[in-house]
Structure formats: structure tokens, C-alpha cells
Design a protein that fits this description.
By secondary structure, the chain is mostly helical. The chain is built from 7 helices and no strands.
Length: about 140
């Protein structure tokens, strides 16, 4: 497994656990470190994990609001925890990440793969739909400048 994909998997597992237990302040870093030790003890590129964790956590309210707009028929608290956190990762990379490091289509494809691997039967389609909607809106906004 490529190290970036493994890193995203650890980020997903960490946010899933943190979200599941009520997003308690101060616990996310401990969860991340434990998951790195458990699932990727020899991983060299840990900076990517912490960049994603910090970026998503710092922008979580903005990201959740984007999910609410892009998927209005699904209240954020009713979106499956896996899907919600896959969307957070994908949207962070799509909107706030370094596009030269992770192009938008790569961010979308990686999120879809996470959804397929960790989510339910329709998770991949759901994530694809939400991220596709946001990506199309981004392109429209750029074209209208």
C-alpha cells in the first residue's frame, strides 16, 4: 500500500474513533499516535498524517458546512461516520490542500477508494457524488472569475 494511501487510512480511522466517541478535546493526537503505532509502525512519512489531521480539525466546521450544502438531503449527523470522515478528508484535500502535491482528481479518487474500502455498499457513490458536486462548483467559480 502506498504510504499516502496508508496515511489517509490512518487519518480516517483516527477521525472515525474521535468522532464516534464524541470528539473530545485533547484526545485526537493520542488516537492518531496509537493508530500509527498499530497500523503503520515503520511508516517514514508521518508528516502527511499530521498535516491532514491538523488541517481537517482546524477547518472541520467549514468542511461540515460544505457537506450540508452539497448533500442537503443528508443531515450531517445522519451521514454514516465513515462517510462523513471520508468526506472531511476529501474536501480538505480538494479545498484547502496543496494542489501541486495532491491534484483535485487524486483527492477525489483517494476519497472514493477509502469509502469503498471502509464504508458501506453505497459509500463510494455517495462520496463521489458529494465531492463531484463540490468540484464542479469550484470549476464554475474559477471560470467565472
Amino acid at each position: 500500500m502506498a504510504s499516502r494511501h496508508l496515511s489517509r487510512s490512518i487519518v480516517l480511522q483516527s477521525f472515525y474513533e474521535w468522532d464516534f466517541f464524541g470528539r473530545r478535546v485533547g484526545e485526537l493526537d493520542d488516537i492518531v499516535n496509537r493508530n500509527i503505532d498499530s497500523f503503520a509502525p515503520g511508516l517514514q512519512e508521518k508528516d502527511f498524517i499530521f498535516t491532514l489531521i491538523k488541517g481537517i480539525n482546524d477547518n472541520i466546521e467549514k468542511i461540515d458546512n460544505i457537506i450540508k450544502v452539497a448533500a442537503p438531503e443528508w443531515p450531517i449527523e445522519q451521514v454514516a461516520i465513515v462517510d462523513r470522515n471520508v468526506l472531511r478528508i476529501g474536501l480538505y484535500e480538494l479545498l484547502f490542500g496543496d494542489k501541486s502535491e495532491v491534484p483535485p482528481k487524486v483527492a477525489i479518487n483517494e476519497a472514493i477508494e477509502l469509502a469503498k474500502n471502509f464504508g458501506g455498499e453505497s459509500s463510494g457513490r455517495f462520496v463521489n457524488g458529494v465531492l463531484g458536486t463540490v468540484f464542479r462548483e469550484m470549476k464554475k467559480e474559477i471560470e467565472n472569475r
